[in-house]
Amino acid sequence: MANTAANLKSEAVESRRMLIGGEWVGAKSGKVFTVENPAFRTVIAEVPRGDANDVNLAVDHALKAFESWKRVPPRDRGRILQKIAEDIDARSEELARTIALETGNAIRTQARPEVKTTADVFRYFGGLASELKGETVPLNDNVLSYTRREPLGVVAAIIPWNAPLMLAAVKIAPALCAGNTMVMKTAEDAPLNVLLLAEICQKHLPPGVLNMLTGTGSEAGQPLLHHPKVSKLSFTGSTAVGKLVMQAAAERVLPVSLELGGKSPSIVFADADEDWAVDGMINAMRFTRQSQSCTAGSRLFLHQSIFDSFLDKLTKKVAKLKIGDPIKEETDVGTIINEKQFTKVCGYIEDGMKQKDAKMITGGLLPKDGPLGKGYFAQPTIFAANSNDWRLAREEIFGPVLVAVPWTDINEAIRMANDSHYGLAAYVWTHNIRDGIRTAHEIEAGWVQVNQGAGQSPGHSYGGYKQSGLGREFSLEGMLDGFTQRKSVTVSLAQ
Ligand code: NAP
């Protein structure tokens, strides 16, 4: 019988191990923690509760493996990544089902596309291995001066739960391609699919090159960040934890990459009051990932003249999204990841409903005793307000709550869009290419899309302005700048 979420409830709880030095092991302490299916609030697995002792072991193995892995010719490392990509494709349905079961992200709209992107990421970086090249510097005829791109050593990587497989891949593939080894800590709420990825990788990698830990942020994440033998910190998660990562890096002057939170603006011009822009906006808001996306376009700045009509179209289309069991094919929108996040999202909606100056256009809280009452389901909710200054318009909710604000002067819209300590993504919607490009250039964000609300693709340098992050991933320059260090070698030819 297929592992649907419903029948998993009655199945035995799966017990998984973590990957250290090529072996599948439990925590040294023997402790475990459970993983829940958020659609039914049922326990689906238990995983080791790693701590500092497990981190020490993993880093030792990664350091030992580094000595030989860095000497593997880059093209051979690249070939290994290509083989991993093939195996991801071969096990794509298993990976997608695991993502849907543990994250609550719908299998059709989210989990399968995430697996596809993950394979693409390995394939992309595998093909870039020969680009790990240096330069020659023309000093004079009697001197040969050149640069080498050398790996950093053991990379400590920490990832969140919202797109765990893909976010693991954008660290593993470039770091390993560049000759580093890695110790990664998975997110507490979504370790299973990343353990599966580690299993696929391990089939092709020497022991210790990739080590995959399960554990909490405080018990496993902290010792990993502060481990003296780690040479680079690569973190994706909230801005609050990102600041702790940066402090840990500062202690030892380590290179650090941070992919952090966002509160991304979407500016719609008067000429874009059309279905394609509404569809694009639904994508940009990531409603089908319950808006649990760092790039969610959660602040909608609509030209005053189309404010009501655009919201009317948006409301009608959003109402057609089917919320339900993430594992079912017909489901568009799955669940919020866990109780803490669910309570937080509901709190924002309640707060919005109490505001005199804001109007709820659609959505609100789902009934607790309704058909979706068992899981952490939240429906797309839209508020209209005249201000960009209230809590719902300023804080990252990381849930399906959209705030719409009208504008008449584009300079004012850009000012509001930039009035945030975040600067990850932004969206502009217009037929007028001059308006679109001018606005894109004025917005303070690492990634501005005009007339589309797509997700990241391998090859495009992705990262945040302001408190949304530091460094870029996903791209060739992300690999070169993030996972190598440049050495200059200068040789006198005079003797
Ligand atoms: P989070 O609370 O910052 O957690 C991210 C990771 O850090 C998890 O593995 C977590 O472990 C770990 N962690 C927590 N506290 C730690 C500590 N004191 N020391 C070391 N590690 C620690 O973020 P989240 O709630 O999982 O994810 C949502 C956030 O990630 C949002 O802000 C979102 O915007 C951001 N995000 C950004 C990007 C991007 O590319 N810019 C992509 C995705 C998500 P536990 O699992 O035990 O909590």
Question: Describe it for me?
Answer:
A seven-stranded mixed sheet has the order 15-16-17-14-13-19-20, with helices on both faces. The chain has a six-stranded mixed sheet with strand order 10-9-8-11-12-22, with helices on both faces. The chain has a three-stranded mixed sheet with strand order 1-5-4, covered by helices on one side. The protein contains 16 helices and 23 strands. Helix content is about 40%, strand content about 20%. By secondary structure, it is an alpha/beta fold. A hairpin with a 4-residue loop joins strand 4 (about 30-35) and strand 5. Helix 4 (about 90-105) packs across helix 5 and helix 10 (about 275-285) crosses helix 11 (about 305-320). About 55% of the residues are buried. It has two domains: about 1-260 and about 465-490, Aldehyde Dehydrogenase, Chain A, domain 1 (3-Layer(aba) Sandwich); about 265-460, Aldehyde Dehydrogenase, Chain A, domain 2 (3-Layer(aba) Sandwich), CATH 3.40.309.10. The chain binds NADP nicotinamide-adenine-dinucleotide phosphate.
Give the gist of this structure.
By secondary structure, the protein is of the alpha/beta class. Helix content is 38%, strand content 22%.
